[in-house]
Amino acid sequence: MRATLRRLGDVIPLPVSVRPDAAANFHLSPTVSVSAVPAARDIAEQLAELLREATGHPVPVTGADGSIRVLLEGPDSGGGDEAYRIEIAPAEVTLAAATTRGLFAAVQTLRQLLPAAGQRAEIPGGTIEDRPRFAYRGTMLDLARHFFTPAEIRSYLDTVVRFKINYLHLHLTDDQGWRLEIPGWPRLTEISGGEGTGVDGAGGGFLTRREYADLVAYAEKRFVTIVPEIDLPGHVNAAQVAYPELTADGNPVTPRTDDEVGYSSLSADREETYAFVEDVIREVAALTPGEFLHIGGDEAFSTPPEDYRTFMSRVLPLPGKYGKRVIGWHEMAAVDLPPAAVPQYWRVEPADDGVARAASRGHQVIMSPADRSYLDMKYDKDSPLGLDWAGVVGVERSYDWDPADRLPGVGEESLLGVEAPLWSETLRSPADVQFMALPRLCAIAEIGWTPRGARDWQSFRARLATFGPRWTAEGLNFYRSPEIDWE
Ligand code: TNX
């Protein structure tokens, strides 16, 4: 049965504190308006647009005295720059935060409390106070195995920000394709970004520098940081197809559109390798205002361990040289890492890859274990899309774990955050992306935001159930998991 009014706590991720007041519901009358100081005007406009969509009312934005007020003040209790407070009373609604980033988070919460079609034109009364558990709450989209256009990437971004995801990692290069234009190396995209360069020959394409910059700006407006990944020294067949001088013997290699991994490698003892890599890292860093640059480092099965160490020792400092903090898949922790480097842990079975050692030396870690957080795993054995090398990952499985327990020696204080990667070998369309992400992305988003002690599977599944009719109304494709009693 569908409620006629949303409950104040029907929010994902669950806020730190929710105090409902059934006597304080706010009626969304035709005269509802939003006010904000100039510095928060942009946020107020975004909120007004959401209110217009939900109510059909005009919802003007003014400088003061709106019935919904967006305030840049407090909470100053050390909750970080994403902390916010929402007060919903019969006469007015207040959104307050110390930063526009916090206000944006508040708007995402309030958005989930707006009535869906057929529900009463009210916002449930009470107070919410909130701040995130982790600074990094990411998702990854693999553009290399299947390219998604800028419009499709923006649409995914629009979906994930609702759940307070604040990093979008773009896997830009792999064996099949190269998806970002690099000055001085035009054949990367001319040859390896063309038609037919995705898995099974579907989904070629690439981002021009301009498109990438526009995407970064679009994300920035939504307080999302783009994390570009150039996967090295393995996963480089597409680069070697474009530039045969990047192979060990200088001989041409053939394009590959199968989904094997681990067969390609840059050569650790050729200077051509490092000239190429430094050019690419410099250009990507120059195009990227965000803090991070991801250099891959995973599954370099055809790079001998000694060569891997040689390569990584030279390449790991390069993002820092160009002003970026380096992230790499956890394999890179086999090497002594430069200060501030962030290993991203993806393993299924806990194993000593050097990640705990890195944590003991003060490195922060991103947790994305494949058997819990990979959005490309099948939901169950009958899933039409996805892989299953890390097992099948149902909704409870994606929710009911904790990143601070995952790896001995990597506790709460060592975690930068969590990420839900979406590899695209089996995906062909934005509808496929939505189907794999919804609802599991919501689980990872809540793990990243909500205090550990406040998380509960039964509560999550009940809240998740309320999103079904909204997603249906919006035309979002989601997996109607039988684990959820969808409204
Ligand atoms: C492993 S885990 C990969 C990717 C694949 C993915 C498919 C990791 C860092 N690399 O190359 O696309 O599995 O699930």
TrEMBL record:
Signal peptide: none
Keywords, in A-Z order: Glycosidase, Hydrolase
An example molecular function term from Gene Ontology annotations: beta-N-acetylhexosaminidase activity
Keyword Zinc belongs to the record: no
Domain Beta-hexosaminidase bacterial type N-terminal: 10-130
Bilayer-spanning residue ranges: none
Catalyses which reaction(s): Hydrolysis of terminal non-reducing N-acetyl-D-hexosamine residues in N-acetyl-beta-D-hexosaminides
Entry annotated with the keyword Hydrolase: yes
Gene Ontology annotations of biological process type: carbohydrate metabolic process; glycosaminoglycan metabolic process
Domain of life: Bacteria
Active-site positions on this chain: 299 (proton donor)
EC number per UniProt: 3.2.1.52
InterPro entries per the UniProt record, alphabetical: Beta_hexosaminidase_sua/sub, GH, Glyco_hydro_20_cat, Hex-like_dom2, HEX_bac_N
Ranges of residues in domain Glycoside hydrolase family 20 catalytic: 134-301, 309-451
Cellular component, GO, one term: membrane
Family the entry assigns: Belongs to the glycosyl hydrolase 20 family.
Protein name: beta-N-acetylhexosaminidase
Species annotation: Paractinoplanes ferrugineus
